[in-house]
From TrEMBL:
GO terms for biological process: homocysteine catabolic process; proteolysis; response to toxic substance. This is Bleomycin hydrolase. The active site is at residues 72, 372, 394. Keywords: Cytoplasm, Hydrolase, Protease, Thiol protease.
Length: 455
């Protein structure tokens, strides 16, 4: 059969299109309005209510906003941590500095990239091979994973936002990243040239030290350089004045935050249903991370039902849950609804989207991957104890959903949530034992690592 789209075939397509008045009507509407808005299901909107059976004791203010940056993983982490911290200090308005962790992630991740260049060169990887080409394509991004933020907090601590506020390049990071990407590619060539000439580790690491001095200057100019110590003054809910400091960010975390939220007590459980990746195994992604010498990104792969159960247990116990998902599928943005039925695509287009593709198929064929991190703060269950819906704290300001909060159906969770972070006490012992295994290494471009590559 002739595979070309000849005139006879194209004429038949045209005839088929205009033979159905519904196509003309849909064209008239969609040519003037956002097609996703046209497909919104009125019935789903009517049946969606932000009322939950179990909810964390109090939701923090203000609703955070990552602006034009890919810092969702940092915002989600700090949104989880601030809840028990605010309760401990008896305050109702607080944010940790997202800019502070962003600064240190840029510094650490540039150093991590340069050392990856060393490692891949020693492996004999060609500069035009898939691995090095992948690393060079996006040498510094804004995204990250749970283990990566744990590395930053354990090494550099935390600081209140008022002590290290946002900057232009925090809220709109593209231009700073553009500068860094060009320098890192330039530096990668210098490093590979040294190694190809047979230069030893000492000379290579001295070169990286000089390169990182320039990187530090660039990042410091764009984001500011955090002070070594700070003083945090605040009023509690009783209008009583308090002061903490002068204190280092690391001491602040260890003395005032860690007692109520210890990042090392939290574990990341993922669900990857691809046949190639067994449940009950641990995985990592080649060349993924941010701190040289820090812990690797480890994925304990389990059925999605376990993630849902652990999430419900945590929220019922009053602890919010960090999670990673693919946010833009089956999502009504303005209304803040994550539901498989929120759009009626067949009604408008005559075909559904992803009608025959499973979660595993979407991962395999490149139509799905983790792209955003947020926080679960509430959950509802039916009479059998099955989760029916969840409340989500986002980091896109108050303009979406219910003043910044989204609502998610259980069916959406099963299709588009890929990982949750909960305290170890909510995970069965046999699942925790899986972390003791030697991780299976996935390639650097695997979709399970994409949350760390968000720009």
């Amino acid at each position: 059969m002739d595979p070309t789209l000849n005139k006879e075939i194209l004429d038949q397509f045209r005839q088929n299109f205009y033979s159905d008045d519904k196509n003309i009507f849909a064209q008239n509407v969609c040519s003037r309005v956002d097609p996703f808005e046209v497909c919104l299901s009125r019935k789903t909107l009517e049946e969606t209510h932000h009322v939950y059976e179990y909810k964390v004791e109090s939701e923090a203010k203000p609703v955070s906003n990552q602006k034009n940056s890919g810092r969702c993983w940092i915002f989600a982490t700090l949104n989880v941590i601030r809840l028990p911290f605010m309760k401990h200090l008896n305050i109702d308005d607080f944010e940790f500095s997202q800019a502070y962790l962003f600064f240190w992630d840029k510094i650490e991740r540039c150093n991590f990239f340069l050392n990856n260049i060393v490692e891949t060169a020693k492996r004999g990887e060609s500069v035009d091979g898939r691995l090095v080409s992948f690393l060079l394509n996006d040498p510094i991004s804004d995204g990250g994973q749970w283990d990566m933020v744990g590395n930053l907090i354990n090494k550099h601590g935390l600081i209140p936002k008022k002590c290290f506020p946002e900057s232009f390049s925090c809220e709109s990071s593209a231009k700073m990243n553009q500068i860094l990407k060009t320098k890192l590619r330039e530096y990668a060539k210098v490093i590979r040239d040294l190694i190809s000439k047979g230069e030893g580790d000492l000379k290579v690491q001295n070169m990286i030290r000089d390169q990182m001095n320039n990187i530090y200057r660039i990042v410091g100019i764009c984001l500011g350089v955090p002070n070594e110590t700070f003083t945090f003054n605040y009023y509690d809910k009783n209008k009583t004045y308090h002061s903490i400091g002068p204190i280092t960010p690391k001491a602040f975390y260890e003395e005032h935050v860690k007692p109520v939220f210890d990042v090392d007590n939290k574990v990341c459980i993922v669900t990857d249903p691809r046949p190639s990746n067994e449940y009950g195994k641990v995985y990592t992604v080649d060349c993924l991370g941010n701190v040289v010498g820090g812990r690797a990104c480890i994925y304990n792969n389990q059925p999605v039902e376990l993630l849902l159960e652990a999430t419900a247990k945590s929220i019922k116990d009053g602890e919010a849950v960090w999670f990673g998902c693919e946010v833009m599928k089956r999502f009504a943005g303005k209304q803040g609804i994550l539901d498989l039925q929120v759009h009626n695509f067949p009604l408008v287009f005559g075909v559904d989207i992803q009608a025959t593709m499973s979660k595993a198929d979407r991962l395999i064929y490149g139509d799905s991957a983790m792209s955003h991190a947020m926080v679960f703060t509430a959950v509802s269950l039916d009479e059998q104890g099955t989760v029916t819906k969840l409340r989500v704290e986002n980091s896109w300001g108050e303009d979406r959903g219910e003043k910044g909060y989204l609502i998610m159906s259980t069916e959406w969770f099963k299709e588009y949530v890929f990982e949750v972070v909960v305290d170890k006490k909510y995970i069965p012992l046999d699942v925790l034992d899986v972390f003791k295994q030697e991780p299976i290494v996935l390639p650097a471009w695997d979709p399970m690592g994409t949350l760390a590559n968000v720009s």
